[in-house]
Amino acid sequence: MLFDTEKKADNFIAFNQEEIRNEAGYAPQRSYFCLFCGGWHITSIKEDIGKSKNEELLEKLLIEKANKKEKTPYEKFKINHQENRNKLFLEIESKIKELDNNEKELFFKEQISFLNKEIEEISNSTNQNDKELLRELRQKLDVTYIVRKQNGFQKVNNKFNEKLEEEWLSWLKKNGKP
């Protein structure tokens, strides 16, 4: 049946539902707008709360399209970077798992010292392979500092703090502050 408005369709259901149920064994439950004819119809199918079939199909299509879409080099780099960080976290955590606090502190000290030396040795290189290695070493150093901090070893880098304090004092003098 076709109705001009939703109200007319709902009124038809309200006044005729029992009679139709007695005659046919089922009765209209709701009205819906038909995009094809631009009118309102009634149906005995209960409305599922949530998404319509069209919405579900559209969402599925968009997901498939997004999955097929080629990732940009930056997206690939970001995914790879996060995977590498996770591997490094697990690697360091497994190495320090059985160590006591003194051994852990020694491990972190040696690891940080080693990485800093390696970074210093290749930091001025123009070789592309060295640049990639430098990036990996910096990432490993960053993860080492994070794991160290998570394990309660938060020693302050005194050289860094002294340098920072000197820069701050020189800035104050430069800007005429006492």
What does this structure look like?
The protein contains six helices and two strands, in the order αββααααα. It has helices spanning 6-24, 53-68, 73-96, 101-122, 128-150, 158-174, and strands spanning 30-33, 40-43. A two-stranded antiparallel ribbon has the order 1-2. A hairpin with a 6-residue loop joins strand 1 and strand 2. The longest helix has 24 residues, at 73-96. Keywords: Coiled coil. Residues 51-105 form a coiled coil.
Write down the secondary-structure element order.
HEEHHHHH
Strand content: under 5%
Record field, number of beta strands: 2
Q: First CA to last CA: what distance?
A: 88 Å
Helix content: 55-70%
Keywords: Coiled coil
Coiled coil: 51-105
Write a brief caption for the model.
Keywords: Coiled coil. This protein is mainly alpha-helical and 178 residues long.
Features:
single chain; 178 residues; mainly alpha; two-stranded antiparallel sheet; 2 strands; 4% strand
Set out the fold topology.
Layout: H1 6-24, E1 30-33, E2 40-43, H2 53-68, H3 73-96, H4 101-122, H5 128-150, H6 158-174
Helix pairs in contact: 3-5, 4-5
